[in-house]
Design brief:
It is a single chain. The chain has two helices and four strands, in the order βαββαβ. The chain is an alpha+beta fold. The protein has one domain: Alpha-Beta Plaits. The longest helix is centred in the first third of the chain and has 5 residues. It starts with a strand and ends with a strand.
């Protein structure tokens, strides 16, 4: 099963917990800053995301939505 995620850029504080716990390493820290001055997490579209939702569970800011395709 394939999945994808959407990250709310303004809620993300760049803590990288989603990156650390993603079993497929489908998330990385981007060079883009949000309005609060944090580097935000970015989903690697076309990666091997399975929609497991571990990233969303680990996100302390509740900034990640998971979709199963």
């Amino acid at each position: 099963m394939k999945g994808s995620i959407r990250i709310d850029q303004e809620r993300c504080k760049g803590c990288a917990l989603c990156i650390e716990f993603c079993p497929k390493k489908a998330i990385s820290l981007s060079g883009t800053l949000n309005l609060k001055g944090y580097f935000i997490a970015s989903f690697k579209d076309g990666g091997e995301c399975t929609g497991c939702a571990t990233c969303a569970v680990m996100c302390p800011e509740v900034a990640i939505e998971v979709f199963k395709n």
